[in-house]
Design goal:
Oligomer: single chain
Shape: elongated
Main location: membrane
Mean pLDDT: 85
Organism: Lentimicrobium saccharophilum
GO molecular function: ATP binding; ATP hydrolysis activity; metal ion binding; P-type calcium transporter activity
Largest sheet: 8 strands, mixed
CATH architecture of one domain: Distorted Sandwich
Strand order of the largest sheet: 8-27-26-25-9-22-24-23
Subcellular location: Endomembrane system
Bound molecules: adenosine-5'-triphosphate
Low-confidence stretches: 212-220
Helix content: 40-55%
CATH class of one domain: Mainly Beta
Keywords: ATP-binding, Calcium, Calcium transport, Ion transport, Magnesium, Membrane, Metal-binding, Nucleotide-binding, Transmembrane, Transmembrane helix, Transport
CATH topology of one domain: Calcium-transporting ATPase, cytoplasmic transduction domain A
Length: about 950
C-alpha cells in the first residue's frame, strides 16, 4: 500500500524568510480617531455647551468691566472637568483592546521541522502546515492538503453557514464563492478535520480585506446601565427643577429686593430675551420634562422636531420669536432701538450669572460620572479578571456574574485537571499483557492510532506534550509507553470516512484501509454501553466469543471504575468485506461490530475546586454538574467536590434521556432539586438552562464544544473554556482561560464587587447632590451672596463626578461579598439602607452648612474669609464622607486595605491639595482668600468627625 505523504512543514529559517517576505498573520488595526477629535466630542453634551456659551457672553461683559477672573475660571474648570473625564475614559477603553490581542494568541497545531507543535495564530506564516479540528477557526487563507468529512461555516465571508470542503477534484463545487479545497481565515470548522497549507496571511487574507472596525466593547448597554439611566433621569429632573427655581429665586429677588429699579419697558425686554432664549434651548429642557413624564409612569414620545431637529432650527425659532415679540412690543412703546428700553450691562451681567448658576446646578446634579464609573469599573474588572484567567468578551457578563444564582458546570477540565491517563486497559485479547505484533494486537494499535484526532508533540522527548482531545491523547500516550509510534501507523493507513467524537453521539468511528490487516476496517470507540450495544461478538485470547457471555463481567468492571470517578471507554471493530455503507447521516448503520475491551482513564479533581465550590455554596449559589459521563463517575466527582451528599438520592440526579422524556411541567419541578445531569447532550443542557431561567434563576453555564453554543447563548452568562472550540468561545460571554471552576468563583466575586463599587459611587454622589443643590437653592433665596459660586460648584462637580468615580470604581474586590446571598436581578441599585444613608447624611450636611452660613452672616452679609471657610468646610465634609463611601457594605473600617487602594489614596490627595491651592491662590477666580494655618487645621480636624462617626457606627455594627 502507498505510504501517505509525510508532512515536515517549514524549518525555522524558512519561517523567518516567509515572515520577511509575506509578513505576519496580523490584521492592521483600523485607524483610530485622533485624540483631539475624541476630546472635542466631549463637548457635544448640550448642557456643557450652554455653559460655554453663557461663559462666552459673560466674557463679553467682562471686557466692559475688565474683570476676567471668574469667567476665565469657569472656562478652566470646564476644560479640566472634561479633560479628566476624557482621560479616564480613554484609559478604560484602552484596556478593552486586550480582547483582540488574546484572539491573536490562540494556539494552533502546526507542523514545523517535521514535528507537530502549537504556535499562536499571529506567528503562522505563508507555507505553514496547520492541522485543524472541529470547532476551530481557520487562522489564515490556505489550500487544503487533507479534508475528512470537512464542513465549514463561511457565514462571516459569504453568508453560507455550511459548505462542504474536499480535496477530491471530482467533488468540487463549481459555483462556490471560494474554491472547495480552500479554507479562509475567520471561517469555522463545523465538522470533520483537515490539514491546511497557508497561502495568505494577515491583511492579504479575504477576511483581512473585508474586516471591519473591531467592535467597540464599551458601548454595550448592560442591565445595570439601563437601571442607572433611569436613576440619572430622576436626578436630572430634580436638578433641573431646582435649577429653574433657583434662577427664579435669584431673579425675583434682584427684581423686587435689589437696588436696581426696572421700568416696565425694561422688564418687557428682559421677558422677551428670556422667552426667546428658552425657545432656543428647547432641545435641552423639553427632553427633561419628558423624562419626568416617564418617571411618573406616563411615558410620551418626544416630538421628532426636538429629538432629531437641528439646533439651527431652534435658533431660528428663537430669533423669530424675538423679532415678533420685539415688533409687538414696539406697538406698546418698547423701542428696541432706544437705549432706555435696555437694561444696563451690569444687570445683564447679573442675569447671565444667575443663568450660569442655574446651568451649573444642572451640571452638578447630572451624574455624568455614573456611566463613566460603570465603564471604568467594567474596564478595571475586565483587566483584573484577565489576570485571574477570565477573558471577558461581553461587558455585561462582568456584572451579571455577580447576580448569578445557579452555575451549571461541565465536569471534564472544569472540575477535573484534564490530565488524563490510562489507568487500566482491559482488552480481552490482550489480557493484561504487552502489545506485540500479533494480528489481534495490531487491531488495538490501529484502533487507537487511527480512530483519533489527537496528536503528541515530540519536540521535547523527555516531556511529550499532548495536543487535541485529551481522552484520545491519553490513549496515544499509553501506546507510546509501550514503544509504539501512533503517527507511523496513522500515516500509513488511509481514512475513507470518519465520524469524529461528539457529545451527542458519544462515540467516534473511522472507516479505513488498513495496511496492517490489508483490509477495510471500521473502528469504533466511545461510551461503553453504546459501543457494547452495537456488538454481537467479543474478541478474546481464545478467538471470537458471544458478547452476551461477557456482559456481566464488563458491567462489573465498569461500575468499579466509575465509582472511582474514572472515565470509561469501549472499543470495537469490524472487518468490512462487503460494499454496504456503514455511515448514514452521521449515524452508524449496518454494522456488525466485535467488542475489543474497555479502558479506564483517570482524571483527578482539581485541587482548588472543592474550596471554590464551597465558596459558591456559601454565597447562595447552586452548583449543578452537567456531564456526558456516566451516573457513577459523575456522582463520585460530585462527592469529591462537595455537592453530592450521602442524603442525596435519585431526585437529585437525572440522565439526559430521562430528562428529555419529562414534560416541561415535570422537568420544571425536577430541575429545582437537581444536582447532577449525566449522560447529557448539548440539547439537554440548553433545556436545563431555559427551565432554570423560567424558575427565575440567573444562570451561568459552561461549555466547550461547538454544540454547546445554543446553551451558552441562552444562559445569562455563557462561560467557554480556553481549550474549547472557537465556536463555543464566540457564543460565550466569558472565556475561562485555565478552564477551571475556581475562575468562575472569582468572576462571581468580581461581579458582586463591581456592583458594590458602583453603589458606593452613587452613595457618595447623591449625598453631595442633596447637600449642594439644597444649599445653593436656599442660599439664593435667603442669602445675600451665593453660598457657592459657579467655579466652586464646578470644582465640587469635578471632585464627585470624575475623581470619586475613579477612586470608588477602582476599589479592589471584597471577599466579603461572597458571604451574601445573590442579589435579585430586579433589585434597584439604591437599597433602602443606602437611601436612608444618603438622605440622613445629606440633610445633616445641609443643616450644618446652613447653620454655619447663619453663624457667619452679619446682617445678611458674609465676609470673603468666611465664605472661603464655608467653601472649604463643604468640600472637606464630602472629602471625609468619601472614606465612608469606600467602607460602605464592606463591614470593615475605612482604613482597612487603604494601602492597597492606591487609586483611592491618590484621588484623596489630589482633592486635599487641590482645595488648599484653590483657597490659597484661587483669588477672584474662586472667590476665595487665604485661610490661616489654624483655620485649616480646625476645619480639616473638625470635619473629620464625619469619618469618625462612620467608624463608630461600623464598629457597633460589626
Ligand atoms: P463534560 O461534559 O463534563 O466535559 P465529559 O467530557 O465526560 O463531560 P463527553 O465528552 O460527552 O462528556 O463524554 C461522554 C462519554 O463519551 C465519555 O464518558 C466517554 O465514554 C466517551 N468519550 C469521551 N471522549 C471520547 C472520544 N474522544 N472518543 C470516543 N468516546 C469518547
Amino acid at each position: 500500500m502507498e505510504h501517505k505523504k509525510h508532512y515536515t512543514g517549514l524549518s525555522n529559517e524558512q519561517v523567518l524568510e516567509s515572515r520577511n517576505k509575506y509578513g505576519e498573520n496580523i490584521l492592521t488595526p483600523p485607524e483610530r480617531e485622533p485624540l483631539w477629535k475624541l476630546f472635542l466630542e466631549k463637548f457635544e453634551d448640550p448642557i456643557i455647551r450652554i455653559l460655554l456659551i453663557a461663559a462666552f457672553l459673560s466674557l463679553g461683559i467682562s471686557f466692559v468691566h475688565m474683570e476676567f477672573a471668574e469667567t476665565i475660571g469657569i472656562f478652566c474648570a470646564i476644560l479640566l472637568a472634561t479633560g479628566v473625564a476624557f482621560w479616564f475614559e480613554m484609559d478604560a477603553n484602552k484596556k478593552f483592546d486586550v480582547l483582540n490581542k488574546v484572539n491573536d494568541d490562540t494556539l494552533y497545531k502546526v507542523i514545523r521541522n517535521g514535528n507537530i507543535c502549537e504556535i499562536p495564530k499571529k506567528e503562522i506564516v505563508v507555507g505553514d502546515i496547520v492541522i485543524l479540528g472541529t470547532g476551530e477557526e481557520v487562522p489564515a487563507d490556505g489550500e487544503l492538503l487533507e479534508a475528512v468529512s470537512l464542513q465549514i461555516d463561511e457565514s462571516c465571508l459569504t453568508g453560507e453557514p455550511i459548505i462542504d470542503k474536499t480535496t477530491n477534484p471530482a467533488n468540487f463545487h463549481s459555483d462556490a464563492t471560494y474554491p472547495s479545497n480552500w479554507a479562509m481565515r475567520g471561517t469555522k470548522l463545523m465538522d470533520g478535520h483537515g490539514i491546511l497549507e497557508i497561502k495568505k496571511v494577515g491583511d492579504e487574507t479575504e477576511f483581512g480585506k473585508v474586516a471591519e472596525k473591531a467592535t467597540e466593547m464599551s458601548g454595550e448597554e448592560t442591565p445595570l446601565n439601563k437601571q442607572l439611566d433611569k436613576l440619572a433621569k430622576f436626578i436630572g429632573v430634580v436638578g433641573f427643577a431646582l435649577a429653574v427655581l433657583t434662577f427664579l429665586a435669584l431673579f425675583v429677588k434682584d427684581l423686587f429686593l435689589g437696588e436696581a429699579q426696572y421700568t416696565i419697558i425694561q422688564l418687557g425686554s428682559i421677558g422677551i430675551v428670556i422667552l426667546s432664549a428658552s425657545i432656543v434651548l428647547t432641545k435641552v429642557w423639553l427632553p427633561i420634562i419628558y423624562d419626568s413624564f416617564e418617571l411618573l409612569g406616563n411615558e410620551k414620545e418626544l416630538p421628532k422636531s426636538v429629538e432629531e431637529g437641528s439646533w439651527f432650527r431652534w435658533i431660528l425659532y428663537g430669533i423669530g420669536t424675538f423679532v415678533i415679540l420685539a415688533a409687538a412690543g414696539y406697538l406698546f412703546g418698547i423701542n428696541p432701538l432706544n437705549s432706555e428700553s435696555w437694561v444696563s450691562l451690569d444687570v445683564a451681567g447679573r442675569i447671565l450669572q444667575y443663568f450660569m448658576v442655574a446651568v451649573t446646578l444642572i451640571v452638578v446634579a447630572v451624574p455624568e460620572g455614573l456611566p463613566m464609573s460603570v465603564t471604568l469599573s467594567l474596564a478595571l474588572s475586565m483587566r483584573r479578571m484577565l489576570q485571574n484567567n477570565n477573558l471577558v468578551r461581553k461587558m455585561h457578563a462582568c456584572e451579571t456574574m455577580g447576580a448569578t444564582t445557579v452555575i451549571c458546570t461541565d465536569k471534564t477540565g472544569t472540575l477535573t485537571q484534564n490530565q488524563m491517563q490510562v489507568y487500566k486497559a482491559d482488552f480481552f485479547c490482550l489480557n493484561g499483557g504487552k502489545l506485540s505484533n500479533d494480528e489481534n494486537h495490531n487491531i488495538i494499535k490501529e484502533s487507537i492510532s487511527v480512530n483519533s484526532t489527537a496528536y503528541l508533540d515530540y519536540s521535547e522527548p523527555s516531556k511529550i506534550k499532548t495536543l487535541g482531545n485529551p481522552t484520545e491523547a491519553a490513549l496515544l500516550l499509553w501506546l507510546h509507553e509501550q514503544g509504539i509510534n501512533y503517527l507511523d501507523i496513522r500515516e500509513d493507513s488511509e481514512v475513507i470516512e470518519q465520524l469524529t467524537f461528539s457529545t451527542e453521539r458519544k462515540f467516534m468511528a473511522s472507516l479505513i484501509n488498513s495496511p496492517l490487516l490489508s483490509k477495510k476496517v471500521l473502528y469504533v470507540k466511545g461510551a461503553p454501553e453504546i459501543v457494547l450495544s452495537k456488538c454481537g461478538k467479543i474478541l478474546t485470547e481464545q478467538g471470537l466469543k458471544d458478547a452476551k457471555e461477557y456482559n456481566s463481567i464488563i458491567e462489573n468492571s465498569l461500575t468499579q471504575y466509575q465509582n472511582q470517578a474514572m472515565r470509561t471507554l469501549g472499543f470495537a471493530y469490524e472487518i468490512i468485506e462487503d460494499n454496504i455503507d456503514r455511515f448514514e447521516n452521521g449515524k452508524l448503520v449496518n454494522s456488525n461490530l466485535v467488542f475489543l475491551g474497555v479502558t479506564a482513564i483517570s482524571d483527578p479533581v482539581r485541587l482548588d475546586v472543592p474550596s471554590a465550590v464551597t465558596k459558591c455554596l456559601n454565597a447562595g449559589i447552586e452548583v449543578k454538574i452537567v456531564t456526558g459521563d456516566t451516573p457513577g463517575t459523575a456522582k463520585e466527582i460530585g462527592r469529591q467536590i462537595g455537592i453530592w451528599n450521602d442524603s442525596d438520592n435519585f431526585h437529585n440526579i437525572i440522565t439526559g434521556i430521562e430528562f428529555e422524556n419529562l414534560s416541561d411541567e415535570e422537568a420544571l419541578k425536577r430541575v429545582q432539586h437537581l444536582k447532577i445531569m449525566c449522560r447529557a447532550r448539548p440539547t439537554d443542557k440548553q433545556r436545563l438552562v431555559q427551565l432554570l431561567q423560567r424558575n427565575g434563576s440567573v444562570v451561568a453555564v459552561t461549555g466547550d464544544g461547538t454544540n454547546d453554543a445554543p446553551a451558552l447563548n441562552f444562559a445569562h452568562v455563557g462561560l467557554s473554556m480556553g481549550s474549547g472550540t472557537s465556536v463555543a468561545k464566540e457564543a460565550s460571554d466569558i472565556t475561562l482561560l485555565d478552564d477551571s471552576f475556581s475562575s468562575i468563583t472569582t468572576a462571581v466575586m468580581w461581579g458582586r464587587s463591581l456592583y458594590q463599587n458602583i453603589q458606593r459611587f452613587i452613595l457618595f454622589q447623591l449625598t453631595i447632590n442633596v447637600a449642594a443643590l439644597i444649599i445653593v437653592f436656599l442660599g439664593s433665596i435667603f442669602g445675600h451672596e451665593l453660598p457657592l459660586t459657579v467655579t466652586q460648584m464646578l470644582w465640587v462637580n469635578l471632585i464627585m463626578d470624575t475623581f470619586a468615580a475613579g477612586a470608588l470604581a477602582s476599589l479592589p474586590p471584597n471577599l466579603r461579598v461572597m458571604d451574601n446571598k445573590p442579589r435579585k436581578n430586579e433589585d434597584f441599585i439604591i437599597t433602602p439602607s443606602m437611601r436612608f444613608n444618603i438622605l440622613f447624611v445629606g440633610f445633616s450636611f445641609v443643616i450644618i452648612l446652613l447653620g454655619l452660613l447663619f453663624y457667619f452672616s452679619n446682617n445678611g452679609e458674609v465676609s470673603r474669609y468666611d465664605l472661603s471657610r464655608f467653601f472649604t468646610i463643604f468640600v472637606m465634609l464630602q472629602f471625609w464622607n468619601m472614606f465612608n463611601a469606600k467602607a460602605f457594605a464592606s463591614g470593615k473600617s475605612a482604613f482597612h486595605g487603604l494601602n492597597k487602594s492606591i487609586g483611592f489614596l491618590i484621588v484623596a490627595f489630589v482633592i486635599l491639595v487641590g482645595q488648599i491651592l484653590i483657597v490659597e491662590f484661587g483669588g477672584e477666580v474662586f472667590r476665595t482668600v487665604p485661610l490661616t494655618l489654624k483655620d485649616w487645621a480646625v476645619i480639616i480636624g473638625s470635619t473629620s468627625f464625619v469619618l469618625w462617626l462612620g467608624e463608630i457606627i461600623r464598629a457597633i455594627k460589626r
